[in-house]
Request: fold
Amino acid sequence: MSTTVTLPADSNQAQGIAQYAIDFIGGKYGSNIDPAVWERAEMFHTDSVMCGVSALAMQTNAPCCLREEALSYPDPKGARVFGSASRCAPEKAVVANAAAVREWDSNGTVFGYNPSIPGHTAGEFGHNDFYGVVIAAAQVTGTISGEKALRAMICLDEIRGRLAEVFSLKSYKIDHVVHGAIASAAVYGALLGATVEEIESAIGMTVAHYVPFRAIRAGKQLSDSKGASAALSTEAAVLSMRRAMRGFVGPKDVFRNPEAIFRFFEPTTGVAEAPKPADVIDITLGNKKRWGPGPSPFNLVLTHSGADFAICGMHFKIGLYEHQSAGALEGVVSLLVKNPAVVKEGVQAIEKIRIVAYEPAFGIIGDPAKKDPKTRQSADHSMAFIVSRMLIKAIARGSLPATGQETWKLLMLSPQDYGKEALFDEATRALMQKIEFEHGGAEYDKRYPDGIPTSMDIHMRSGQTYSSGLIMYPPGHARNTTADLKDLLATKNKMLGDIVFRDQASLEAFLKPLTGIKALSPGDLEGIYDFDFGKMKEHACIDGERPKGTMSKL
Reply:
């Protein structure tokens, strides 16, 4: 029996996604989901929530700003933000919680690469930012069990993960969050009982009205817009779904719409009529057939049973770092464990550090201009900063455990490693200047996105050179088979939880329903994000004083 459904390029894929979400969440395909898939969803959701609540505890700007905004939109039939029993407009709860989840840039990652399905190797990025959509729907309806919610999370990741495999948004300078917004509209609608046509309208509105470009990521010093991009797009998706359920009709059949992003950037008609060689502009200007009826640029395959769900190809971050640097961090750990002399001899004994990696890592986080980050958001996209922080932590200890597993746990990068003090730490900045970053060329590029091909050499003043060798699948990567992932994530949960909760009992009480979500009743699920916000550990804003804004004066 087939474990997938295929939405052909010549079909209405917006309706197909809607029908898939309704059928999968509604249980049409039975319970033939491998236990590892359920476990993966629970782990990604828990990881995202711990990232979110710790970002709030550290007074990060966008999450706090959007949480305050959400609570100013009371709705007795609405949803809840982290740590509050008060209900607010569902899209406002979603934007607040998603912004908190994404703030550290430390939750799950997808690279949109599945060579086992033809045409599913586009390699678009994405992150596991969208689970709050499911919880918001559960809080609005009051009828969704933990098992159904976890199924909906698997569904959401399946839709956005497979879209990332067939259409590369970044190639056209569009932010990757569009795929998550489409999935959010479909899943929120399916959970609330929307029709196929209503979900189609919501997807159409999301794509036609709310497409974010990568302008939010341009420049050397990044703003709140980068971290909140998924949140803002998902807010629009949920709002679009609510409008559609009130009868608002959005654009239909948006994947085959020649003026929507998919066929606009990847034309499927008029190509033969354009002059040769032809680019998108030639095709666009050269003939009218380009704007006529035609298929979408891709077939879309969605899994409904078995083990080959998109979520199983997604990756965890073992601490706080941009995922493209995971190979370099594993290089640090493995090199130091094998060569303890580096730690004992200290920073002054290091002549230079040479890191070789692939594109897009070289272009995204290896830019020499990023050796002078002035914001946390820029520091966590600076390979030089990320690697230097881990090395400085190691050298400060004087010695390390004998295994990579224990060393990862000891050196795990925390929010404080990107705070204002760490950002301008003299030792870290001095070490950054010793780092040379090189593009590994075709030999490295061809290994991505199957892996994260990276190597590191540390050259000592003594003339000795220590090498990590080629790193492909660091801990947290879906293809890693050597690390104890559950142990590493437990350490990460505790690290983040200790920022929020004053005692171990409170942390364990908060984690219990998250790690046991599948067994929760609808009533228990509604309160899954509850904790006493007023009793969190007190912290100054990690980035310094928060902007006050003129709204505070009104």
